[in-house]
Amino acid sequence: MFLRLFLLFTLGPMVELYLLIKVGGIIGAFNTILIIILTGIGGAILAQSQGLSVMFEIQKATQEGRMPVEELFDGFFVLVGGFLLITPGFLTDTIGFLFLIPWSRNFLKIYVRRYLEKRVQKNKVIIDIHMP
């Protein structure tokens, strides 16, 4: 776990810095900063609209008397995606947009669900959740 966190907090910023320097060298510092600001604003707007949509879906699911499992996954991805979009960088922006766009989020949910199911089986924990 330590190694993963170490790599995340050292390699991640190094890759972002490298990309910012490379792109800045090609299109100029001003344009690079402008792109970062615009993706931050666009990401905040997208995160807000998707966040509200997810909130309404969670309310709808609970009013129907069912556990909002899919909606909670969506909420998690929207939260993380919004955070990534306000973090300066091209790699984080790309991942953040993927987390906020509903069709790509659906693919990510499948991967995360399988990962969690394997972890639960590995630890011999039984959780009975019926997903549609």
Describe this structure in words.
- This protein has 132 residues and is an all-alpha fold.
- The chain contains five helices and no strands.
- The two termini are 33 Å apart.
- The relative contact order is 0.11.
> Can you tell me the number of structural domains?
1
Count the strands? 0
Cα-based radius of gyration, to the nearest Å: 18 Å
Give the overall average pLDDT: 87
Backbone structural class = mainly alpha
Summarize the structure.
The chain is mostly helical and about 130 residues long. The chain contains five helices and no strands.
Provide the descriptors you would attach to this structure in a database record.
about 130 residues; mainly alpha
Which helices and strands occur, and which strands form pairs?
Elements: H1 2-27, H2 29-63, H3 69-86, H4 90-100, H5 102-122
Helix pairs in contact: 1-2, 2-3, 2-4, 3-4, 3-5
